[in-house]
Amino acid sequence: MIPVLLIFIPLVTGLIGFLLKSEKTARGWALLSSLVTLVVALIGAGAGKTSPILHADVAWLPDLGSRFAVGLDGLSLILSLLTAISFPLIFIATWRDQYKRAWNFYALMLLSQAGLLGVFLAQDALLFYFFWELALIPVYFLCSQWGGERRIAATFKFFVYTFLGSLLMLVGIIWLYFHTPDHSFSMASFYDVHNHMSNSDQTWVFWLLFVAFAIKMPIWPLHTWQPDTYEQSPTAVTMVLSAIMVKMGLFGVIRWLAPVLPIGTWAWGDTVSTACIIGMIYASLVAIKQDDLKRLLAYSSIAHVGLMALAIFATDATGMQGVMIQLFNHGINILGMWIVVDLIERQFGTRKISELGGLAKNAPGLAILLVIVALGNVALPLTNGFVGEFLLFTGVFTSTATAYSVVFTVVAAVTIILGAIYTLNMIQRVFYGPTNALTEKAVDISLNEKMVLSVIVVMIIFIGVFPKPVLEMTKDAAEYILTKMAYK
Amino acid sequence: MTQLVWLVPALPLAGFLLNGLFRNQLSKSLTGIIGSGTVLGAFVVSLLLFGEVRHEGFQPAVVTLFDFISVGKLSIPFAFQVDQLSSLFLLIITGVGFLIHLYSTAYMHEENAPQFARYFSYLNLFVFSMLLLVLGANFIILFIGWEGVGLCSYLLIGYWFRNIDYGNAAKKAFIMNRIGDLGFLIAIFFMISKFGSVSFDQVFGKASTVPVGVMTAITLLLFVGATGKSAQIPLYTWLPDAMAGPTPVSALIHAATMVTAGIYMIARSHVLFDLAPVTQTVVAVIGLATALLAASIALKQNDIKKVLAYSTVSQLGYMFLGLGVGAYDGAVFHVMTHAFFKALLFLGAGSVIHAMGGEQDMRKMGGLKKWMPATHITFLLGCLAISGIPPFSGFFSKDEILSAAYAKNPVYYVIGVFTALLTAFYMFRLYATTFLGQFRGTHDQEHHLHESPGAITIPLWVLAILAVIGGFVGIPDSWMANGHRLGAFLSPVLGENAHGLEVEKGTELMLVAVSVVLAVIGSLAAGMRYGKKPELGEPTGFGKVLANKWYVDEFYHAVIVRPLDLLAQFLVFFDKNIVDGIVNGVGRLVQYGSRQLRLLQSGQVGGYVLLMVLGILILFLVELFTGSPAVSSAAGKVALPH
Amino acid sequence: MPINYYIFLAVALFCIGVAGVLTRRNAIIIFMCIELMLNAVNLLLVAFSKMHYHALSAGAPNPNAGIDGQLFVFFIMVVAAAEVSVGLAIIVMMYRNTHSVDVNFLNRLKH
User: pLDDT exceeding 90 applies to what percent of chain A?
Assistant: First the structure.
């Protein structure tokens, strides 16, 4: 029941949203819808793990062996919560952004939320693919209609790039489908299919699925769509993209790749891990040199996501729990960063670090909240980022799936330093130092922005100090996935 | 009582939250009361705890507050450990911390109320983090405090955030600390993978089960962490720059407490270091080298705070020397006495800077004893203590380390004593240039010279008394039965042989005599020379190398910062043109191919038809040669009847 | 009469039609050639239909044998008639616009 509601509330309200034809109504409608979704998600989080309301399974395409099977386990729950929390925050934080034909904008946002939730909840491979594309399409329109100057080129690249991956994934899914003994797309059949295929098949089918996920995450060197798209999208969409959408790739690996093709995953583990580590260092170094705040955050996101992917391939209980909690943490942190970027851009009309400076003088509230969010981003203890990254690194270090765990950890951990460098550089050049003509008249943030950022800050610190509830939530899911990933 | 240990960090935390959240509402006096009061409260609780810990037969108590991280087999509770070592550090931190809070209420009074509250909230947060650091019952809680103090140090160095240089200094401090923290973190990962736990009792209990190689790796990594936090070679360069912060901050964080975190951590995990002799040698050598290097730089600095900063680095080097030769209690003893006299010296310097209207260059001071008698006397006591003149506190702690160093290797002693000579020399150079001779500042400054108010001089006197008598808790046992009460107190934690190797009584007396004579010579030489004719010009020759800090910053810039910068620049280019170029290249290739194929579409209907017919013909031909013979043969046989 | 004669005739007609479509530029002649091809096919269908009828009802007469070929012929004739009307209309429109029935004028498809 709950998962069905989670998908259909944004879907239906989104479709209705197209008809509203008034900016104010549409905005309120979108916020209302997202709040209802949040309430439903919280009910889902509150329900016991075995509660029947967490699952739904009805016939969908019976001839194909595909069912509308959706469910909330720990992994789905944490990502659904992230989605459900993020959208109202995004709507409130960008409340004052102006869009032409705003009703279409908000309707598309809700549709993408429906797609995202569907991706996280689907327990049927075809359904998963269906929602995967459903989430992509509204984002394409959002970027191409309301984006920046070079939006068409950037969006086109984004769409073609991710769509290419999606098609490969579809081929992979169909290939696997034909190898299931009962010709079914259900998760159970997919988790069993590796018993019915040779190891060599696993090693190449792996890439069909992995490329799609790797593009979405993105993993170096498939990342170049991301900075362009982040830069050109309207900030609300960038928030969706980086806070939630990149998690689709990681989620896909955890749910639809690693347990489905354990031997393939293990066989390519070192290759992928190397790419992740190169990407982490590379993206961190590139981030140091960025002048545009959005591009800086895009590269920082690539570095963080690389670490999560690295931990997935470590096949370790600690690491897997780390990934699951970090999926949430990273979403929250990067959302906070984007909100600050949006505030800065709206106030000064620029995102260039070199044109800003000294904001802390006139906007101390903004500076304080940003510093806390940034500290979460650099994984300072007692923020959520530390819990996540500590578990991730521990997982990689103690991994038995690779012979190079120590090397991987040490090299990857260099990004802790590089992360501090680019984050502190950014804080210093934007917020500290003398003011200039542009920032002389800066005003501090308003109440609703302060509220949104405070919510984020409270979550950052709460999870950083007391991560137990989140860890408990994802424990069973992580262990289950790991039993399926047993490669020996 | 030990169950209430959570109160100790909770009070400063409450102060931080109150001052931080209500910074726009609170008045300055209220802010000061909250800020200092919470630390005073923590000090009182620490005293009560200390009273309990002092009892004979006290067993170390672990107080678990809640489960912090619990994943799979790894369980990390948020737990505090109350024992002799932590309770001693609690006293130092909250005691000296309170004095410095008190001092700050006067020193920072020119700030407006919200900034004042910001300052105190940072300071409280620092005390909170430092308390977590020393109270943690496992390496993770220790690490939380460890990074927390780094953060506060960053915030406080960059407190005057509108100055770009200060911001850069803050950033440098944080990043260099992070480099060390990385080592620490990897050591923690090693512990998790080898011991399956990070709590002190588990790790220390199982320590002897792992090979020496692994233990050497773990301890070296821990030491990397310590070099960052405690400003040792190669990560020491942030500390002198950290003097950008307000002077009380330099006293509290960059002299008395935070920088000694590395010593605390190594003393705490001495079980591990005892098992890794290679690491111990590295610790001793690095400590000694840092002590000597920093002392040599201090000889030629003209900024009053920079001299003290390098002196701090140098004294920290002594402490590491102590740790390296196994004199753990000597190192902790020196931490304590150093906290007293270095906080005193910094606060005294702050008092001078305050009177001089922000001037920090010693060349523009001189003769200040006439105007500032209290500051002058207390500062002189501090100088005597740090120079190791008996019976001041520095004498006892320094000589304990030096005699242990002699027992380990006489070369250590020789270099250590030479450094002690340098220490005495540069401290009295500082003293003489500042307080003796003629005033050399502007007339305006002279007009404003005044003794500081009570909130500044009271902490000075308290610290001066401690700096004078603080050494008596550690009189060598060979001089007086049960004289080393500190050592006896700490022995349950640091072990029975925490003094390091012993030397004969006669040798020890001789060693002490040599170091005292050298210290006196150094002090007198500097006092006489600079009292009469201070060094005002720019240094030349070798002095110039010293004044420029051996060009280490420049070296780091050329070897690390610059190449990293170039690499980043190259990667930006690489990303834009190669990686993205390939992606865009694929797109362009498709477009080019399409453009070529498009030419086939001439628009001539006839052409299309021709192609169609040719296609059909080809299909026919293919069918003719490859198709099944049944169809073609059947057609020939059947005929119409008519 | 052997079926081969019918086939040769139909092929000849069809080839004439193809050659006409390929070589002529006058839309009306192309049109006639298309009709020629259609009728070649019709002829062949009728011939084969007759052949199958006799082959299949060799023992007992089977009135339905080969009837589908005949049906196709009718179907084609109807479609051809419809096509003629549409096609002629297009040609008329073309003439009105270009004052010519030369198909080479109609090369806008390449844009």
Answer: 47
Instruction: Please tell me which of the candidates B603, B635, B636 has its beta carbon nearest to residue C109.
Output: B603
Residue B227 has pLDDT above 90, yes or no: yes
Domains of chain C: total: 1
pLDDT tens digit sequence for B334-370? 999 999 999 999 999 999 998 888 888 888 888 888 8
DSSP states along A347-376: HHS--BGGG---HHHH-HHHHHHHHHHHHH
**Residue-wise over A388-403: b if at least 16 C-beta within 10 A, else e?**
bbbbbbbbbbbbebbe
What stretch of H or E contains C104? none
Domain assignment of residue C46, yes or no: yes
Cβ-Cβ contacts under 8 Å for A453 (sequence gap 6 or more) = A93, A336, A339, A340, A366, A369, A373, A445
8 Å CB contact between A322 and A390 = yes
If you write DSSP's letter for every residue of A41-80 in order, what string do you get?
Answer: HHHHHHS-TT-GGGEEEEEEEGGGTEEEEEE--HHHHHHH
All structural domains of chain A with their residue ranges: 268-488
Chain B residues with beta carbon closer than 8 angstroms to that of C102: none
Q: How far is CA B361 from CA A81, A206, B201, B305, B307, in A?
A: 58, 67, 49, 9, 11
Q: Is residue C111 part of a domain?
A: no
| Cis geometry, peptide bond prior to residue A221 (ω within 30 degrees of 0) | yes
Query: Residue B497 forms beta bridges with which residues?
Result: none
Tell me, what CATH number does C13's domain have?
A: 1.10.287.3510
B496: tokens are 């029975």
**DSSP state string for B546-566:** HHTGGGHHHHHIIIIIHHHHH
Q: Do chains A and C touch (3 or more CB pairs under 8 A)?
A: no
Identify whether C68 is part of a domain: yes
Q: Inter-chain contact C18–B613, Cβ cutoff 8 Å?
A: yes
The residue range of the domain holding C87 is: 3-105
Residue C101 inside a domain? The answer is yes
Which chain B residue is nearest to residue A321, measuring alpha carbons?
Answer: B71
Mean pLDDT of the residues in chain B: 88
Beta bridge partners of A90: none
Which pLDDT belongs to residue B636?
Answer: 47
This model of the complex carries an ipTM of: 0.92
Q: Are A372 and A460 in contact (CB under 8 A)?
A: yes
CA distance B123 to B94: 12
Of the candidates B71, B178, B569, the beta carbon closest to that of A471 is on B71
Return the SS3 of B235: coil
Q: How far is CA B360 from the centre of its chain?
A: 24
Q: Is the pLDDT of residue B113 over 70?
A: yes
What global pTM score does this model have? 0.87
In this model, does residue B216 exceed pLDDT 90? Answer: yes
Distance CA(B202)–CA(B206), nearest Å, equals 6
Could you tell me the end-to-end alpha-carbon distance of chain C, in angstroms, rounded to an integer?
A: 53
Does residue B609 sit at the C interface (CB-CB below 8 Å)? Answer: yes
Which helix (H) or strand (E) segment holds residue A446: the answer is none
Q: What is d(CA B244, CA B18) in angstroms, rounded to the nearest whole number?
A: 26
Apex A9 CA angle, A6 and A13, nearest 5 = 155
A182, two tokens = 């009962």
Strand, coil or helix: A166: helix
Distance, CA of A94 to CA of A88 (rounded, Å): 10
Identify from C6, C8, C107 which residue to disrupt to test chain B contact, counting B C-beta atoms within 10 A and taking the largest count: C107
How far the first Cα of chain B sits from its last, in Å, is: 123
Which pair of tokens denotes residue A115?
């797609």
Contacts of B531 (CB under 8 A, 6+ apart): B432, B436, B437
Asked if A296 contacts A426 with a C-beta cutoff of 8 angstroms, the reply is yes
